[in-house]
UniProtKB/TrEMBL annotation:
Ranges of compositional bias, category Polar residues: 1-12
Region annotation Disordered: where it falls in the sequence: 1-21
One Pfam family here: DUF885
Name of the protein in its database record: DUF885 domain-containing protein
Organism: Pseudonocardia tropica
Length: 583
């Protein structure tokens, strides 16, 4: 293992027994999952893929249980005095408990999902691999050759789920078979793997291995697709889209690191929807006097208004890179410290068959791979900027990139578990990114009405997520004042109609979002819940400073908050409220 994975404790340093245990757990996970090791920037076994069979899941369960037992031995009944140790112990206990509930409830046996399932993870692993010469490409070829084995393990898990009566909902299966069709139809019908390796400048032997690996991986994907369509899908008929309260409770803890009052969150989601709807109407009137929000968004989609439209994927990628570069230059030294490696972030075009929404991949812990934002292709190769500006504050700077790269900088002081996606709580990560969008609005970066409508549209998207994610999975009643489905119970059809009426982005975006919520219950509510936690923590910290007669320095508070590593929502607010932030 490289030195990022090895730490020692000297007599002059505080005890770090819990953080060392957390790092041991990450090392064990990396042994079970070479893709995770690659995500962290570790180079060992990058020609391999994880075991996606029931045996692989059993090994993960054993690793989690053993680490929890060791944690009990390490800490006993005491809370560590060191704050980093204390936070790590709470995170480790909460995250491993949530993962055990997820694994042992049978979720990996029905993991057919466009965005969160094993297939998307496998393909993303290739896009993050180094490809700088024959040696790197030989590793890629060797990993491609293992794709059929990995897919066989995945199929074995789904077959075991079928035997137990645990199925994904049919619409998820249909979506994933379509996703595979898109991948295998890429590169002129040769498949995504062939297209990925097509431009590699390598010797004849590596080229032969790449071509053979790509053919075998593509064929294995096709076989999985045919099995899903011919055997799995008919058996899954009748499986409901909504997961119900028991599965939702487990999923919520897994994604958000908290137990929630679903009634309170549902009602709060509606209140946010109503508030944002009113703000959008005001902003739309600045764009189309007397017009509706829909008319304003249609105008912005057509001609871009004052925010403009970029034509061509490469031109859009370059423009989004400039947004991040300019934001770094403006915020550095004023609201954040954006020096050194934190400035390294790349805008990329997403591969074919990706979900419709942009996304971010974090840097390796040693920054050998930079953080990257990814822009999916549009159907017409036009990219209106009105709703991309705030999105890039979310995905790039000061959103995901600033938080996750800041964690990477601190990974040696804390633990890899606290500072990477291994232990990251989705609601903390997405909540910070949504907080970052709001912060940029607070700082006056949406003076243009089109840009601000785009920001509000992003806020509306996350409020709608709360309402329809909870509503569809728990079959909740639609309020009487709802513009869609008043007095009825939520269904996917009502959710799709509601989303399409209130969120801009087009049909492809709406369809993809609906499948996302149904395939990853409770993940989507974490954006607004996480933002609420960050805002509450900030205001409580501000109030505490005022009560002590101290000045509240927002930049100092941001620095302290980003230095903590990840936290679940149960712990995030009290930790944020207690942070020092003095000028």
């Amino acid at each position: 293992m490289n030195d990022q994975q090895t730490r020692t404790t000297s007599p002059s340093r505080p005890a770090r027994d819990v953080r060392d245990l957390a790092d041991d757990h990450v090392r064990r996970l990396a042994e079970l999952d070479p893709v995770l090791a690659g995500d962290l920037g570790w180079t060992e076994r990058q020609d391999e893929l994880p075991d996606l069979s029931p045996d692989g899941t059993a090994a993960l369960v054993a690793a989690c249980r053993e680490t929890l037992e060791r944690l009990d031995t390490t800490t006993g009944a005491r809370q560590p005095a060191d704050p980093d140790e204390r936070r790590c112990a709470r995170l480790l206990r909460e995250r491993l408990g949530a993962q055990l509930d997820h694994l042992t409830s049978g979720e990996p046996l029905r993991a057919v999902q466009e965005l969160f399932g094993p297939l998307a993870t496998l393909r993303t692993a290739f896009t993050l691999m180094p490809v700088d010469g024959d040696e790197d490409w030989a590793t890629v070829a060797a990993r491609m050759a293992r794709v059929p084995e990995a897919l066989a393990g995945y199929r074995a898990s789904l077959a075991e789920g079928r035997r137990r009566g645990l199925f994904a909902a049919p619409r998820q299966v249909v979506r994933v078979t379509g996703q595979i069709d898109a991948w295998n139809g890429d590169a002129g019908g040769r498949g995504w793997f062939a297209g990925f390796a097509a431009d590699a400048s390598v010797g004849d032997a590596v080229r032969a291995d790449l071509d053979r690996g790509a053919r075998e991986a593509t064929a294995a994907l096709g076989e999985l697709r045919d099995w899903l369509a011919a055997e799995y899908l008919p058996a899954a008929e009748g499986t409901p889209d909504g997961v119900g309260p028991d599965r939702y409770r487990i999923a919520n803890r897994f994604w958000n690191g908290a137990d929630i009052d679903t009634v309170e969150v549902y009602e709060w989601g509606w209140s946010e929807f109503r508030r944002i709807r009113e703000e959008m109407a005001v902003e739309a009137a600045r764009i189309v006097p007397g017009g509706s929000v829909r008319e304003a968004m249609e105008l912005l989609e057509t001609d871009g208004g004052s925010t403009g439209v970029v034509v061509g994927g490469e031109a859009a990628r370059a423009h989004l890179q400039k947004i991040m570069d300019d934001t770094i230059a403006e915020l550095d030294g004023v609201h954040f410290d954006l020096s050194g490696r934190l400035r390294e972030v790349e805008s990329r075009l997403a591969p074919a068959g990706s979900a419709a929404a942009p996304y971010y991949t974090p840097p390796a812990l040693d920054f050998s791979r930079p953080g990257r934002t990814w822009l999916p292709a549009s159907e017409d190769d036009r990219y209106p900027l009105w709703d991309l500006i705030s999105t890039w504050y979310h995905e790039g700077v000061p959103g995901h990139h600033l938080q996750l790269a800041s964690w990477a900088v601190r990974s040696r002081e804390l633990s890899t578990f606290q500072t990477s996606l291994v232990g990251a709580v989705s609601a903390d990560v997405e909540g910070w990114a949504l907080y970052a969008e709001r912060l940029m609005d607070e700082l006056g970066h949406h003076s243009d009405p089109g840009s601000r409508l785009g920001y509000l549209n992003a806020q509306m998207l996350r409020a709608v997520r709360v309402v329809i994610d909870l509503g569809m999975h728990l079959s909740l009643p639609v309020p009487d004042d709802s513009p869609v489905g008043a007095g009825r119970r939520w269904t996917p059809e009502l959710g799709r109609e509601f989303f399409g009426r209130h969120v801009g982005g087009g049909d492809a975006m709406a369809d993809s979002e609906l499948l996302r919520y149904l395939g990853g219950p409770a993940q989507a509510i974490g954006y607004k819940l996480g933002e609420r936690a960050w805002l509450t923590g900030r205001e409580r910290a501000r109030a505490a400073h005022a009560a002590r007669g101290e000045e509240f320095d927002l930049a100092a508070w941001h620095a302290a908050a980003l230095a903590q590593g990840t936290l679940g929502l149960d712990d995030l607010v009290p930790e944020l409220a207690a942070l020092p932030a003095r000028a």
